[in-house]
Amino acid sequence: MTTEMGILPTLRTELSLHPGPAGADGSPSWTIRDPVRNRFFRISWPAFEILSRWWAETPAKIAEAVSAETTLHPTDDDVKGVAEFLVANQLTRPAGPQDTQRLVSRAEAEKQSWFHWLMHHYLFFRIPLVRPDHWLDRTLPLVRWLGSHGFQVTTMMALTIGLILAGRQWDLFVATLVDTFSLSGLVSYGIALTVVKVIHELAHAYTAKNHGCRVPSMGVAFLVLWPMLYTDVNDTWMLPERKKRLQVGSAGILAELIIAAWATLAWAFLPEGPWKQATFVLAALTWISSLAINLSPFMRFDGYFIAMDAMEMPNLHPRSFAMARWWLRNVLFGLGTPPPEPLPAGRRRALIAFAVAVWIYRLVLFLGIAVMVYHFFIKAVGIMLFVVEIWWFVARPIWAEVREWEKVKTTIMAGTRIRWTLGTLGALILLALIPWQGSVSAPAVMKGSRSAALHLPFPARLEAIHVSHGQAVKPGDVLMSFTAPDIALRKAVAQARIDGKTAEFEAATLDPLLRDRAGIVQEDLRKAQAELAVLEAEANRLAILAPMEGRILDILPDMQPGDWLSPRQKLGLVLENSAPIAVAYVAEDDLARIQGGAGATFSPHAMESASRPGRVQRIDPSPAKTLPDGALASVHGGDIPARVSGQTVIPDGAITRVTIALEGPPPAHEEIGTISIEAENSSLIGRLARSVMVVLIREWGA
């Protein structure tokens, strides 16, 4: 960088210097623009003053000039530090063989193997499609009105009215959203997403151009082969006003919210038809895309750049990660090293918390992407890409941090904090290895071992209710009486025919002239009598009888004599006087740990009900394909993840039905709760290994 004589390197002539925003302490800053690489570097006031006197050529002369002409008092080392920064970021001109060799060495170090190049470009790469700068200059006057105060006020009014009207039709909005979850609906969302994202990127480009920035390219970026549009607005780093940078960063989200506002208003007013459906798709998509995705600061989307500009913290992710790593090393090893940059304690804690949140978010996201990639491709390719995802996004950062610990191993081992860290780690490992978990918990429902629902055979009118809720009944007891006027009428008609045919038959037996018809009349009489017997049987079915000994429960409320009731209505329930059972649904990972006859305890969710002991009576041989006890499903507020298909509830995971015989009297009604079953002791590590093996065996055989 410098010769033995202390001569400083020469700056590249194509660099330009621009005023930057004020720092957190109010001090001015400047931005160095490298047009060749389209990169920008923020420098402080002392660095600017030093660069302003770079012509002095030596650190001593520059430091002396700055001290004489400003209130700053830099040292020779400060000037050398600026020179090192310039050289490290390739902002100087090579002045001899030494600099040339340094650049060659750096280029060699940056070379990647074909494997690393392929992995990097598989994970993320960009394809510039257009260079829109001149076109944006020509068309900017046509769209400038979209940023006017009048249009903003009008949009706010449209947003307010649209939300009020949508709120009044919320049930219809939700029902329409569910209806769009189909193949045609997904195609509509795909088309709408493409249109909205083009408008989103144009909003960034036009806003940057409106503030005098250059937009060199627009195109498509691929994150794990997932396409996303992008716009190069790096020139906004030259804008000293934070407000303008925030306007550029938030332009895409604001454009989507404008679309959402007007689409919501249009949906509320349009009649049923394709246009109403189209505006609904636009409204639903833009609300979700803007609020749930683009505003997230955890990935490098608009929310991240907005957060950087709002906090005046360029490179927010790297700086917060560096601060969190420093905090982690001090907590684990007590190194006592200074933070990577001097910041107030409050902001330092905020950066650490933000970094931890980003790590957790990315861990969940990248694991999900890895699983998706595994299932999307064929087995062999999916496994390879899954491993790459886990290594690059999860294991590689952890390994890089461990290697940093290795560099200061001597200092770490010399401290006292390492003993506490290793002791805590050992205790956690021991806790994970000890098989202290001796039970399995599962959602369950308690019910009578046998019950019978009461229903009418056909529509009828209630005559009387002969029992009350909770009353003991015996087989054959009449519980309710019903009548059907049409049956009574048909019985009267049949009886009249019987009477007539009886009289006719008696006359035929006495009158020789009618004796030939006696056989025919007798056959008609038998038919009439058979019809009457059928009607009598139908009428008798209208007396609801107890099918077994037990108690009558859940009598249909508000029934009054004279009410007409349908066969679809449940009139009540007869619960047999026998011990109750609990039906539990055990996860696949825990099934191997329980055996028939194992002890169990049912704990109802209702606070007024007591727990009941019992024993495992039956374990189904295969997983449940449906969930007949729908109250346990997540779609109905239960604990079992499930979905509804037609009239059937289908569990999302592998669960097996286990029947437990409980002690005590049968419950007055079904009760939801949790069953705890005695099981083979297992450790956390053992359960994790078993789960992994189950997945491997299942996927290997799939």
TrEMBL record:
Location (main, coarse): membrane
GO cellular component entries: cytoplasm; endomembrane system; membrane
Annotated ranges, domain Peptidase M50: 191-270
UniProt keywords, alphabetically: Coiled coil, Membrane, Transmembrane, Transmembrane helix
Claim: Membrane is one of the keywords in the record: yes
Gene3D superfamilies documented for this protein: 2.40.50.100
Localization: Endomembrane system
A single MF term (Gene Ontology): metalloendopeptidase activity
Ranges for region Disordered: 602-628
InterPro entries named among the record's database cross-references: MBTPS2, Peptidase_M50
Topological relation to the membrane, as annotated: Multi-pass membrane protein
Protein name: Peptidase, M50 family protein
Species annotation: Magnetospirillum gryphiswaldense (strain DSM 6361 / JCM 21280 / NBRC 15271 / MSR-1)
